[in-house]
């Protein structure tokens, strides 16, 4: 028999009716998310749309949809301002920063997460405190060191400062994830004859792969978009990353807004595509890696 409440409809019908009802909070949530997505997606659409217009059309009516797109801005970006070379410089620098941060930060995180030693809490305190230091406060001493070492306007002149700047974040995220790995797994590896290096490369690195993936993504994006360091440490054309190229376009070709929109599109779109494909690793790495600190 169907269970019913006296003087009311059957329980299964009440449950179905409750499921079909949309609460006010849900409606408000969707309204806020829609408004937020429009403020994020529309500016990107506006830039890409204007990249297919000549500068005159951008100035006269920048909000109109480009029904007759032109490719002159993209051909100019590769021919006149050599954006391909800047792309290569950005990939070399940002890729090197990611490799160094994961290697050094991974080993440091492994030591902090799995070893008990005097001063361990002090190291954590120093790492957290270093996050409060703004980047521009260290520009003068870092630039002085680069001059002494002869690394200004070289790839290493940007790789080393960015590596040092991203190490704290990487160590804290990776150490938090590694602290959640069961000790039984470590003891079993020791019984099988693993040393510390084999334990890190064969056990901790594969198990902590989501944390390494999310860390590498954030470090790459921060390094790729670091205009402040690029303008100071590497200002020569042969080592100039793509974000510094945008600044030069705005100064040399300040009235060519179509070219500027094309350069911005070429800079941002590849990063967005990569992010869409690896978004699941970011979410998994941050949620599971934040269990312990």
Automatic annotation (TrEMBL):
Keyword Amino-acid biosynthesis among record annotations = no
User: Domain ABC transmembrane type-1, which positions?
Assistant: 87-278
Q: Which PROSITE patterns match?
A: ABC_TM1 (PS50928)
Q: How does it sit in the membrane?
A: Multi-pass membrane protein
What UniProt keywords apply to this chain's record, in alphabetical order? Cell membrane, Membrane, Transmembrane, Transmembrane helix, Transport
- Give TM segment ranges: 27-48, 91-113, 122-143, 163-182, 203-224, 257-278
Q: Does the keyword Iron-sulfur apply?
A: no
Q: Which Pfam families match?
A: BPD_transp_1
Listed InterPro entries: MetI-like, MetI-like_sf
Subcellular location, in the record's words? Cell membrane
PANTHER family from the UniProt entry:
ABC TRANSPORTER PERMEASE PROTEIN MG189-RELATED-RELATED, SN-GLYCEROL-3-PHOSPHATE TRANSPORT SYSTEM PERMEASE PROTEIN UGPE
Family statement drawn from the similarity comment of this UniProt entry: Belongs to the binding-protein-dependent transport system permease family.
> Can you say what this protein is called?
Carbohydrate ABC transporter permease
Species annotation: Paenibacillus chungangensis
């Amino acid at each position: 028999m169907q269970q019913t409440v006296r003087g009311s409809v059957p329980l299964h019908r009440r449950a179905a009716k409750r499921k079909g009802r949309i609460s006010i909070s849900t409606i408000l949530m969707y309204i806020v998310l829609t408004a937020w997505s429009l403020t994020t997606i529309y500016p990107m659409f506006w830039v890409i749309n204007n990249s297919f217009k000549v500068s005159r059309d951008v100035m006269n009516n920048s909000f109109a949809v480009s029904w007759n797109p032109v490719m002159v801005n993209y051909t100019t970006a590769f021919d006149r301002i050599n954006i391909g070379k800047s792309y290569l410089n950005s990939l070399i620098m940002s890729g090197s920063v990611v490799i160094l941060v994961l290697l050094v930060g991974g080993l440091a995180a492994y030591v902090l997460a799995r070893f008990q030693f005097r001063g361990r809490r002090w190291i954590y305190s120093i790492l957290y405190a270093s996050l409060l230091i703004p980047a521009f406060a260290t520009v003068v001493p870092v630039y002085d060191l680069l001059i002494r070492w002869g690394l200004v306007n070289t790839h290493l002149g940007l790789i080393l400062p960015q590596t040092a700047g991203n190490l704290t974040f990487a160590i804290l995220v990776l150490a938090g994830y590694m602290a959640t790995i069961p000790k039984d797994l470590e003891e079993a590896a020791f019984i099988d004859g693993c040393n510390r290096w084999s334990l890190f490369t064969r056990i901790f690195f594969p198990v902590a792969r989501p944390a390494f993936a999310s860390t590498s993504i954030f470090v790459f994006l921060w390094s790729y978009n670091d205009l402040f360091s690029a303008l100071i440490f590497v200002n020569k054309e042969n080592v100039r990353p793509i974000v510094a190229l945008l600044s030069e376009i705005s100064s040399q070709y300040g009235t060519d807004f179509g070219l500027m929109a094309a350069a911005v599109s070429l800079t941002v779109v590849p990063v967005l595509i990569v992010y869409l494909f690896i978004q699941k690793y970011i979410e998994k790495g941050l949620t599971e890696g934040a269990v312990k600190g």
